[in-house]
Amino acid sequence: MRTKLVAGNWKLNGSLSSIRELIDGMLAGVDAVKTAGVAVCPPAIYIPEVTAMVKDSKIAVGSQNVCDQDSGAYTGEIAGAMLKEFGCEYAIVGHSERRSLYGEDDAMVAARFAAARRNGLKPILCIGEKLEEREQGVTEDVVSRQIDAVIAVEGISAFADAVIAYEPVWAIGTGKTASPQQAQDVHAFIRGKLAALDAGIAENIIIQYGGSMNAGNAEELLGMPDIDGGLIGGASLKAADFLAICQAAG
Ligand code: PGA
What we know:
The protein is an alpha/beta fold. The chain is 42% helix and 15% strand. Bound molecules: 2-phosphoglycolic acid.
C-alpha cells in the first residue's frame, strides 16, 4: 500500500524568523498527521536551520533543486552530497519554474534526477503541461516525453526510489486547480505508462498532485485513487493551512 506524501515547496520565500515561526507551528500540530509523510523544501540556505529544528519529528527536508554534477567549476550550484550532509532526504527536480525561467530542458532535468539518486536523495520529479498544451490535447504526450527523458538515462528501476509530482503549469500559483477528475486522469495515465514497464514500481510509486492545492480542495483531490499526496507552494507557507492538507492526506 502506498502512503501519501505532502511536501511544501517554499520557493524563494521566507526569512530566518518567518521560517522558525513556520516550523514551530508545524511541529505543534504535525503529530495529528497519522499516516502521511510530511516534507518541506526550504530555500537552500535555510536547510541546515530547518533540518536542525525538525530533527526529532516526522517532518523530512528536501531541496528545491540539485546540481547535475558532483563537484567542480559550477558556480551557484549545490551538489547532492552537500544536501545529504545537511540532512536532506528529497530533492525536487524539473520544477516548471526551473524549466521555464532557468532553461532546464528534459536532458538537464534527467541529469539532475540521476545526481539526486547517486547521492542518496529521493528525487521528486515534476512534470506537467502548459495551458496551450492542454488546449491542444497533448497533455499525455508532454508528460510521457518528460518521463521518457529520465527513463532513457536512469531506466525504469530508478523510479523505485523516486516521487513524481504532476503539476499542470496552468494551475501553479494561479488559484486554478485541476479538477479532481482532470488530475486523476493524468495520474492514472502516468501510472499506466510506468506499469507497462514495471507493474510493481507503478503500484508503489507516489504520484503527487501540485498546482493551487489548498486546505479547501485537498480532501477531494487526495480522495482520488491515483493521487498520492501533494506538492504545495503557496499554501505551505502557513502552518495551519499546510497541516490541514497533511491531515487530509491521512
Ligand atoms: P502552488 O505551487 O501550490 O502555489 O500552486 C505548487 C508548486 O509550484 O509546486
